[in-house]
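[step 3/7] fold_predict: job queued, chain A
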Amino acid sequence: MKQLKLHITFLLFVFSLQMVYAQYVPLMNGYFKTNQFINPASAGINDHMVAYTGIRKQWVRIKGAPSTQMLAFDAPLNKQRIGLGGVYYRDKVGATITNGLQFNYSYRVRVSRKMRLAFGADVGVETSRFNVGEIELLDAADQTFTDDYSRVNKFKMGAGFMLYDKKLTLGLSMNDVIKSAGFGNLITYVQYKKKINREWSYAPGMLLKINTLLIKQAEFSILTSYKQQFSVNLGLRTNGSILAGVGFNPTSQLLVLYSYDYIAGKLRNYTSGSHELTLKYDFVQKYKTSSHRSF
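[step 4/7] structure written:
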């Protein structure tokens, strides 16, 4: 109990900092399968080591549109009480390239016979570079941009909570607590899994992203699965995007996910949409578990 109190005290401290200093976090559609990317509390949630990678191309055909790549792994320790994980990501928006390395830690306790509560924290480093060569200046003599690259390095911290069992998952996370001039970023999500029969199941879910600049984005989705081997995901974002994705297991250890965003509104005239590919690899051949999540 003393150890649990120390974990909770530390994470509440991290959250209090987060309310003051935070910034934007790249978000990929595959979060419902690889949500360690947005919540450190999910590190080690499986009963074995897992690795995954993803690439997202947003607003194809628009110059300078966001592009994100991610590589991560996580594993449980101490009979699944502790989880460790790591995430590398590269995010390019316009002329700015951001590279980040993040290490995640989680600690979980049982709150009932079936349900667990996980606490997570992350630390990392991030480097952002601004490439002046990619900017087309209206005035070639403009002295605002003088260096080939403007580089910013920083240390990062974050925290998250997750309450889950075989059916329900509730998550809350905040990222990047150390930033003297920025905006707070909060991500919360929920998913409920329901079996239709022995072969089919479905899982409605919602994700909400909000910051202190009052920029809000909600996503509603439903994931339908067949024998845990094939899935279809449909969703809608409040910015007007319609989401569609498919997932399948070519082997018992490999999961392949593809997601497409249909962009509504005037932006549709300039882009064919957004594409995302995620691969997840389980370091076991066959397994049984009480905590493996589809979200």
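[step 5/7] annotate
The CA atoms of residues 29 and 286 lie 26 Å apart.
The helical segments are 2-18.
exit 0
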